[in-house]
């Protein structure tokens, strides 16, 4: 029996399940195709697969225990974090369904609500632009909205008027939100969103989960969220509990933005006025970005230390 839990790249092309996992259970182990490397925010759908002879292994983790209990396989890995999970095998409509989950995901509150199927008020049809870099994008099929892939100036989902983006929503899981905050990227993200007439950030989790974080001080994240809202009041950060509710809120918000800004068929001047009513603060460029630009353009720059003011000014002039 294989002693380690293995994760590898799925060699299949064009698949929505880009990874393979091998569970050390039985003589040859159980091999599954999966969507993510770990079920951090929601259950991960799995599908049975074959382990390739020349597998491109990403992670190889020793296993403390692996046992089958009824319809579930309990897996405990020999590492400090992200070490306990469970694979649940069930049947639905005559075929096998497998989900990978953690205790936190399994116990996550599920609000007993049904989202409405009616279209947004005042909008006959809504086309939502999805950023080309968005992985596993929302489909908005329940909301009866169409989607189209396009590079967006800010956010992950947006709408247009007269071929101009007027509203955008940045989608975040709680893990992604915390990473963005702790790495100092949140202010830059909000500054880009604040340049649009309407924008928001929606989080697929509850605000209370901020205070359940284990590897980051909850007070640090809460303080940063407060500072971000005080600095960028035109870009609300919404905690929508679940992926489903976050998608529903995004649809209603984008539809309302189209309805409001399209009432008087605003001109470019009006849109500029809406976007610039409270200009976003000008943030200094990151030193690493300036250094990379300087090297690409033949400027002399040190590997570390304070950047020369004239070099920063040259970078700003080149990007205006």
TrEMBL record:
One of its GO terms (molecular function) is acyltransferase activity. It comes from Enemella dayhoffiae. Keywords: DNA-binding. One of its GO terms (biological process) is DNA metabolic process. The keyword Plastid does not apply. Gene3D superfamilies: 3.40.50.10130, E3-binding domain (4.10.320.10). Residues 127-207 form the ERCC4 domain. SMART domains: ERCC4. SUPFAM superfamilies: Restriction endonuclease-like (SSF52980). This is ERCC4 domain-containing protein. InterPro entries: E3-bd_dom_sf (IPR036625), ERCC4_domain (IPR006166), Lsr2_DNA-bd (IPR055370), Restrct_endonuc-II-like (IPR011335).
